[in-house]
TrEMBL record:
InterPro entries: Aldolase_TIM, Methyltransferase_A, RNA_MTrfase_RlmN, rRNA_lsu_MTrfase_RlmN/Cfr, rSAM, rSAM_sf. Keywords: 4Fe-4S, Cytoplasm, Disulfide bond, Iron, Iron-sulfur, Metal-binding, Methyltransferase, rRNA processing, S-adenosyl-L-methionine, Transferase, tRNA processing. It comes from the Bacteria. It comes from Pseudonocardia broussonetiae. NCBIfam families: rRNA_mod_RlmN. Residues 112-355 form the Radical SAM core domain. Binds 1 [4Fe-4S] cluster. The cluster is coordinated with 3 cysteines and an exchangeable S-adenosyl-L-methionine. Its cofactor is [4Fe-4S] cluster. The keyword Transmembrane helix does not apply. GO terms for molecular function: 4 iron, 4 sulfur cluster binding; metal ion binding; rRNA (adenine(2503)-C2-)-methyltransferase activity; rRNA binding; tRNA (adenine(37)-C2)-methyltransferase activity; tRNA binding. Reaction proceeds by a ping-pong mechanism involving intermediate methylation of a conserved cysteine residue. This is Probable dual-specificity RNA methyltransferase RlmN. The gene is rlmN.
């Protein structure tokens, strides 16, 4: 196996038109002023969009018709659903979105007894080139705008509220684990997190503790995120504790080695007070060896701290034609036992959506 080239900068393709969700409260008032309207109209518009999940100005009947027409340019349609699929008795719903330029991205809305979670994309495609990931196989098309990211969350919140998961539910969790490397689109992702977590009418009002931002290990960006004052959970897609294998499985490891990534995770946990999640896709005969479980537990305990880290073991969701496959259940159970023996919490992620191509990037790759 050979390492693949990394793409940190997205191709220079035009982002979609400016949207209300791209703007902070001061920018919204300025934008409304440019349209010849008083500043309080910005607050009214935000209450509809963030508080009521409404993006159609015609439904904003407390606004005069002339104001609705004037404000329409601040709510352009950024993402259009192309395909929607459901499984798990309707509690898992995957949406394939099309952007203004035809780029595709995916989100997954999942209902649980105690919460509703949406997994969103931050890029159209991904430049990290992890060979077992469907998105990584397709390469990077472009970054998504802040508005496009927030729109995935707003529409998921509206769908959950309206009973799309079977019964009405409040969206409580947002995970940046869809298509793309969130920290490679740093500025827009952080802005999206602020819109998602700010109280209405400035944002969607979801607790920052319900937001998880994943990364393959962009060390400088991890340190930058720690200083943002956003107590979100950091999830590090590690997938193996040794540099020799990780150089191939996660090619960014050629730039920042395992120990550097774990040290950055420790700094994040220390700064934010938030426990770090270690994502580990278990792949048959590749990274599921007993000695790797032992090494993983040892490194995490030493470099981050037993009580500041949690391992999220992910049974691999194979992609069509891939050489990669999930580990057998006995191997998975032994891996969990060995990590836990090091004093590190380790659980297996609930597997959702195998029958609807829910491994990230699979749906977009179908060309639907």
């Amino acid at each position: 196996m050979t390492s693949l080239p990394l793409v940190f900068d997205a191709p220079r393709r035009a982002l979609p038109p400016r949207h209300l969700a791209d703007l902070d409260p001061a920018e919204r008032r300025a934008a409304v002023g440019e349209l010849g309207l008083p500043g309080f109209r910005a607050d009214q518009l935000a209450r509809h969009y963030f508080g009521r999940f409404t993006a159609d100005v015609e439904q904003m009947t407390d606004l005069p018709a002339a104001a609705r027409d004037a404000l329409r340019p601040l709510l352009p349609q950024l993402v259009t659903p192309v395909l929607e699929q459901a499984c798990d008795d309707g509690t898992t719903r995957k949406t394939l979105w099309k952007g203004h330029d035809g780029t595709r991205a995916e989100s997954v809305l999942m209902g649980y007894p105690d919460r509703a979670t949406v997994c969103v994309s931050s890029q159209a495609g991904c430049g990290m080139a992890c060979p077992f990931c469907a998105t990584g196989q397709g390469g990077l098309e472009r970054n998504m705008s802040t508005g496009e990211i927030v729109e995935q969350v707003r529409q998921a919140a509206a769908a959950a509220r309206d009973g799309a998961l079977g019964t009405p539910a409040r969206l409580s969790n947002v995970v940046f684990m869809g298509m793309g490397e969130p920290l490679a689109n740093y500025k827009r992702v952080v802005a999206a997190v602020r819109r998602i977590t700010s109280p209405a009418p400035d944002g969607l009002g979801i607790s920052a503790r319900g937001v998880t931002v994943s990364t393959v290990g962009l060390v400088p960006a991890i340190d930058k995120l720690a200083a943002e004052g956003l107590p979100v959970t950091l999830a590090v897609s590690l997938h193996t504790p040794d540099d020799e294998l990780r150089d191939t499985l996660v090619p960014v490891n050629n730039r920042w080695k395992v120990d550097e990534v774990l040290d950055a995770a420790r700094r994040y946990a220390t700064t934010t007070g938030r426990r770090v999640s270690i994502e580990y896709a278990l792949i048959r005969d590749v990274n599921d060896h007993a000695w790797r479980a032992d090494l993983l537990g040892k490194k995490l305990a030493q470099r981050i701290g037993k009580h500041r880290v949690h391992v999220n073991l992910i049974p691999l969701n194979p992609t069509p034609g891939s050489e990669w496959d999930a580990s057998p259940r006995p191997v998975q159970d032994e891996f969990v036992r060995r990590v836990q023996a090091a004093g590190v919490a380790c659980t297996v992620r609930d597997t959702r959506g195998r029958e609807i191509a829910a491994a990230c990037g699979q749906l977009a790759a179908t060309g639907a």
